Amino acid sequence: MFEIEVSADSPVPPYEQLRASVLRQVREGTLTAGTKIPTVRALAAELGLAPNTVARAYRELESDGVLETRGRQGSFIAASGDPTRDAAGRAAHGYVEAVRRLGLDDEAALSYIRDALEASPPAG
Q1: Which residues belong to any copy of the HTH gntR-type domain (predicted)?
Q2: What is the DSSP track for 71-90?
Q3: Residue 32: which of 78, 71, 70 has the closest Cα?
Q4: Among 5, 68, 70, 88, which one is most buried in terms of CB atoms within 10 A?
């Protein structure tokens, strides 16, 4: 079942609320691989959003590997399921490569991570 709520009162932009909601439902197993999701226009009308807002969320989800578009058949939850762990792992490896090139020790590298986590609110 595809259930999305977007709050106009939230400080989080609507496209990000939509993206985070879909991702959360994939992680929880509510939306499983192969589940067809509404068209951009249908979801925009249902939520009272501009089609461009929904399209942006869908593009970001597709870029992250959460959605796949099959032409005229529509958009579906990707067969790979939740790609976030893989993406996070790649990002972590990239970060380690960067701090090694900069000559930082492990404690300094971890300190930057802690500072960044504290400065950024959790997603979703």
Answers
A1: 12-80
A2: GGG-EEE-TT---HHHHHHH
A3: 78
A4: 68
